[in-house]
Write a structure and sequence with these properties.
295 residues, alpha+beta, five-stranded antiparallel β-sheet, 10 helices
Length: 295
């Protein structure tokens, strides 16, 4: 009774496993299998029993490339990652562990344990595709693209670094980003990094800073800082920087022109006033005020 009870418990354990479990004899034919193997392969238990595990489930070309040309029959535990052929003709990626089985001097063939990793494999393939896609974008970007960790260490910097900063991109890896900036701009950049990290995934900040170039001049860049620490591809804070030197020069030139024309306006001996659409005086120079006695 105890033996039958133990046998039932063992069979229940085998049938409730999340992995496909089967045994093959010395000729590689399946002698027993649990229901999970049927779920993975699509073959019924009757179809599996007595069939050659390798011929039924594994592509012949793949077998020829394996050491010894077989999955079973080895003297040690072997682990394989391979595509399994289902009854419907589809492929499922599995992890297969093949272990020699013996009781005393009796050779009982081999035990096979199969875990379906198709979902994991698909996710890994998608991640690799995304990585390749984003890397292609980054490699061709005219903007300077930088990825830093939460402490500000550079994890990646795009090849445009050479064109913009006259420095090799691979030499940036591991450096602290603030150390590459003008001393006056280090704290604002650090504050921008802290702000997006504190607020969470997807948060952004814009900051303008001066990068030290290889020729020891400074390049003004306007940067968009975005928290992508949780993104499986980026895995850090993404900083996209666009050259702002010419824009800053234009703004400074515009300010000088505005100051120049304001002085002309105020110092002109002619009485000048600016009116709105209703005819009300919006602004007047000193000569206009003196002439009409306004304050």
């Amino acid at each position: 009774t105890d033996v039958r009870g133990a046998d039932r418990r063992f069979r229940t354990l085998v049938e409730t496993m999340n992995e496909g479990l089967f045994q093959v004899d010395g000729d590689g034919r399946i002698t027993s299998a649990n229901s999970r193997l049927s779920e993975i392969t699509g073959f019924t238990n009757d179809e599996l029993r007595g069939a050659s595990a390798e011929q039924l489930l594994i592509d012949g070309d793949l077998l020829e490339r394996l050491p010894g040309g077989t999955l079973f029959g080895g003297q040690t535990r072997e682990q394989f990652s391979l595509p399994l052929r289902t009854k419907a003709g589809d492929e499922r990626w599995v992890e297969l562990v093949a272990t020699p089985a013996a009781a005393g001097d009796d050779d009982l063939g081999s035990l096979g344990v199969i875990q379906d990793v198709s979902g994991q494999r698909a996710a890994e393939d998608e991640l690799r595709h995304r990585e390749a896609y984003f890397r292609a974008l980054l490699e061709r970007a005219s903007d300077l693209v930088t990825i830093v960790d939460s402490d500000g260490h550079i994890l990646y910097q795009s090849p445009s670094r050479e064109r913009l900063l006259h420095r090799k991109a691979d030499l940036a890896i591991g450096q602290l980003l603030p150390e590459l900036l003008h001393p006056e701009d280090r704290e604002p950049v650090r504050e921008a990094l802290d702000a997006v990290l504190d607020r969470g995934a997807g948060e952004t900040e814009t900051v303008e800073c001066r990068y030290r170039r290889g020729d020891r001049t400074w390049l003004v860049l306007e940067s968009l800082v975005k928290n992508l620490v949780d993104d499986p591809v980026i895995g850090g804070v993404l900083i996209t920087s666009r050259e702002a030197t010419e824009r800053r020069k234009f703004e400074q030139q515009l300010k000088r022109q505005q100051a120049f024309f304001r002085q002309l306006f105020q110092r002109s001996p002619a009485a000048i006033a600016i009116l709105d659409t209703d005819g009300a005086v919006v602004e007047a120079n000193d000569s206009f005020v003196d002439l009409f006695g306004f304050e």
